[in-house]
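Exercise (ungraded).
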Amino acid sequence: VSAADTRFDDLVQSVDVHRRTGDVQQARGNTEAAKTAWEAGLGEVEKGLLDGGWKPSDEADLSGMQGGLLRRLGRTAEALASYRLGADIEARTPLKKTYNRSNAIKLALISGESTLASVASGLVALEAAIEDAIRSDVQVASDAWTYADLGDTQLLLGHVGEAADAYRTFSERARSDSPTTTLSVLRQIVDTLRARPEPDPDASRLAADVERIESLLTPR
Amino acid sequence: MTADTSTFQLALSYADADREYVEKFATALEKHGVHYYDPKNDLSGLGQHRAAVIQRIYSSDTQHVILFISEAYVTDPNLRIERLAALDQNVEEPGFVLPARFDGSSIPGLDNLIGVDLRDKSPEHAADAVVDWLEREDPEIRRRPAIKGWEAFDPARLHCVVVGSEAEESAGAKGLAAAFSEVLHHEFPADEVKNKPGIWIGVSETLRTLELLSGRRPLPATYDEGAVEPCAFSATNAFASDTELRRAIRLIIEADLALFDVTDFEPGVMLLLGVRAATRRGVTIVSHGAEWFEGTPLRRPFNLADLSLASHTPIPVKVGVNPRRGRLAERIQVGFQQLGRHPDYHDLPVYDALRRLGSESSAWWPIPADEEILVLCTYDGAHEAAWTSVQQGLTDARPDVKVKGTLSRMQDFATPQIVSQALYEKIRRCVGCIVDWTLASPSTFFELGVRLAISQWGTVQIASKGWLDLMESGATDGNGEPLSRSKARRQVRSMRHRFQPIAYAADAGVALGQEVAATLLEISESGPAKEHDIHRVAVEAMQRVEPTTTGVVLALEAEADRLDSPQLGGQHNVPQALFHEAQSIKRDHERAALEQRLAAWFYLEHRLGAGQRSEGDPLRRRWVKLGLQVSRALLEPGSEEADQDLGIEISRQVRARRVEPT
């Protein structure tokens, strides 16, 4: 393991503990403690990004982590900017990972910036990119997160049957704590689409699809 | 290579008519530990150009030649070549030839040389006189072992040993030693022209990380010829004397890299391989020559059935470097890589089966000889009658002796356990063990090597007299195959001197039983204090090369990583458990890994005080890293509240005393 990998691993581990601490405190209703933890994590990521010296794939991951923490802190526009920066690195490098590209679209939906119709072409391109990565890179094909991204993308496109297959693969491969994370994002998208002044015509379809997927992923 | 694989101390040249005398003389020589060449016992040069073989052996491959001069000798035209080769060498190296005279026959050029007069000497006295002469000519000869190699294990060096076969030694084919020598000189160093790093880098890196009881291995990172201790000898050399055998055993155990030529699966090679398998978790390459190539059929002994067997037969190519070299280099390179990465790396069977017997005392306590006696022998149908006779003899002898244990061969065990696991457990635990050499089963000799290396109780070795006679005579069947099933005649002869197996006649009956039982009784009553030689040598060598037991933290972390490795803080999510599709299996692995990491963290915190150590201390860094890992896992979505609290608390402690990476 190289020194650069160790440095990245240490930073990611530490930031993720802050993020999870924040999530736990938020769930307990300790909003201030949650905010403190997320801000601590964000401080570490931002310092890491400022220090620089990362491989493109690491830099993209750090941008994604930054986006996740900013989103939790309610700084949606900044979060979206982080995801887009990461998405740009993913597309430019070109990386097989699609985490930032996927989250940039989802957050644009959550923030109300986009509608399902307006992100459709981006979703189609993303689905193609993920499927290509699965075919060409065994590491990407082995990673459960890939199937979460694929499932989300297909679900948003209304390809429920294919999305169900992707989620099933995701659920089988992922660490057992993973499905909850992805479902909460989908629920937020549904809520936002429904809350728009002019409700998104696809919102009801998506809500029904999310419910089906929830029942699929929830352990019995 | 610094060692000579085929140097004899003395080569014998004699006429057939004088054979009886010379054989007794040779037997006496062996008792003096002199390693000699006897052409009448060497069948393995068959098929080669006779003159070339004789020329080489009677000049460059021996330190001295003794000519047994008689009327029969001077008149036999077949002996002319060996005589002339020796005399030519004597011109260059006076004192090379010693004449021993049965009568007054004359050989031009030798008549003025004072020799040994055999007319008034028994073979034994003649041998004494020759040994005196050898010591006068070369005072170091008996102290200087035919087997060279390092005198003391040096942790800063890579130790390599090549064990050659009698087949290749006698044929003058230094196959495996030569192949390794090429690898050592061409593949270990970096090749700057081709911009190849050389395999030394990986080899030394692995050895630097593996800590031995004697300490760490400060091997240089870049190749240096002085950092390698190579050594090669044939199995025949290894059994030439007690001193040679002790030396060979030590070298085989201490070597980081051992290469065994298993051509013909000779008894001596298999015994030495058994010693290696039982003692050392280094890199061992087992290779077959004699025109055999990897991927082609080969009948293997049971114990080597799942071995990745190499070939050192040169691959036919018209020009350029023989691909054999690259193939051997790759095996060595990959072997050391895997040794460094895989905690349970094995290239030979036995090692774990001998050590992992279970924790209950009933799983590892010795099995007394009045309960069970392990018998290691061939299952060849041709031996069945002899085995029945041995068994009957022991049964009949039992009323007279105290050794009443059941005689058990491997196939007699009523156990569903896989054979290798059950067999090596018995080899370790049974106080009483009989090994029958008859028919030279390679598996039996491999098991004998294991037993001699690890057991403090010793072994009763027996062999059918009929088989020993066949071995001695070298009689062959219609296809030229030896009736004894082994061509390694010199090796077996030397082994007989070292181990003195009880030779039994087909009708030995109760007499054999009593002799075996008496020896078993002696072993069982003498107790572990009287360890036999090979085990004692092994114990001494093991103190230098036994790896340290993995520390608590490392062991717990390694097991946790095996179950559920931290994947860049969750950036990757690749399933690790087999049958991960079953959520319960996955969850069980994740949970077990978390508990092991927690145990490791608490050990670091409370036992080693890692959190209080100085900032640069590696233990403190480990404590931080592990603390964050367990916190992250305890804080996973949906975890119990108590787990979450513990995660928050550990992360708080770790961050308070965290050393920021520089």
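Further reading is listed at the end of the chapter. For now, observe: The longest strand of chain B covers residues 158-164. The two ends of chain B are 46 Å apart (CA to CA).
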